[in-house]
Design brief:
Blueprint lengths: L5 E5 L3 H11 L4 E5 L5 H19 L10 E3 L3 H5 L4 E4 L5 H14 L5 E4 L6 H5 L8 E6 L8 E6 L5 H12 L4 E4 L9 H17 L5 H9 L2 H5 L4 H8 L4 H9 L18 H15 L4 H20 L9 H16 L6 H15 L1
Parallel strand pairs: 1-2, 1-4, 2-3, 4-5, 5-6, 7-8
Antiparallel strand pairs: 6-7
Length: 354
Amino acid sequence: MARIRKAAAIGGGVIGAGWVARLLLNGIDVSIFDPDPEAERKVSEVMKNARRAYKAMLPDGLPREGKLAFAGSIAEAVAGADFIQESVPERLDLKHKVLAEIDAHAAADAIIGSSTSGILPSEMQTAMSHPERLVVGHPFNPVYLLPLVEIVGGQQTSGEAVERARALYASIGMKPVVIRKEIEAFVGDRLLEALWREALWLIKDDITTVEELDDIMRYSFGIRWAQMGLFQVYRIAGGEAGMRHFMAQFGPCLSWPWTKLMDVPELTDELVDKIASQSDAQAHGLSIRELERIRDDNLVAIMEALSRQNRGKGWGAGALHKDYTRRLSKLAQKPTISKAAEKAKAAKARRKKG
C-alpha cells in the first residue's frame, strides 16, 4: 500500500489541525505552517481530543505518534514532504498566493491536496507552475474520525496524481471518492447546502426552533443515514418492489410547491440573532471542546457498532473502521522477543551473576 513518508500541513485551523491529528496518529511526521500566533495552542487542543478518541478505538495501545514541527515558512514546512495538504481560508486570492508558494518549494513528485469546500481546482491551478499535481481533497469535520474525502481533479490535474492521491488518503484510513466532474461545492456540500437552506426558512418562519429541527434529524433519518445512504434507504422504503415502486409512488411529490430551495432567506441581524440565541440555549452551557468530545464519543460508538454488523464483517463506515483499527493495532504492536532470544538473554544474565 502507498505510504506517506513525511507530510506538510499549510493552515492549522479546525480542518488543518484535523488533518495534522489524523496524520500524526498514523505515525507520520508532519511539518505545519500557520502564521496565527495561537496556532500551536489550537492544534494542541485538537490533538488532545483526537488522542482521546483514538484511545477509545484502540484500548490496547496506539501506534508510535509522528513528530510535529511548527515551521517558520511555507518553504520550510514543505521541504522533504511527499504529501502536502493546504487548508487556508476560502479566498481564491489567498489560495493562489499559498499554492504558488507551495508549488515553488515542494519536491517535484509531491502530491498537493486542497481542503477547499467549494472552489474549483481549475481556478486554483492558474497560480501554479506544476498544476498537474494538485487535487481537491475535501474532508469532513472531524477529519481525524470521519473517513470520507472527496477527490476532485482540475482541468490540468493528471490521472496519475488522482490515483496517487486516492492511494495516499486510503493509506491513512480514509474513504476516497473521486468526483467524476468538476463542479462548485462538489457533492457533499451541495447536499448539505440544500438541507441548510431549507432549515433556515423553517427557523425564519417560526415553524420550529434549531433544537427541535436537530431533534427531528437525529431521532429519525440522521440515524438511517449513519449506515445507509439516501438511495439505499429509499429503495427499502419502496418495499418488495424496490426503487421503481418508490419512484412511482413519491415521484409526483417533486412537483408540489413544498420547498423553498430556489430562494435564499436574507441573513438579517434578526435571523442571525434568532439562530445564535437558540443555538446557545441548545448547548446548555457546554463549551465547544466539551461538545467536540461528546461528538467524538458518539462517532466512535456508532462506527464501533457498525463494525460488528454484517456477520462480523462490518457495514458501511463500520467495515472501513474495522480495517482501519486493525491496521493501527498492527502499527502499535512492538516486536516480540523470540523464545531463543529470551533464553540467550537469561543465560547471559546468569553468567554475569556467576
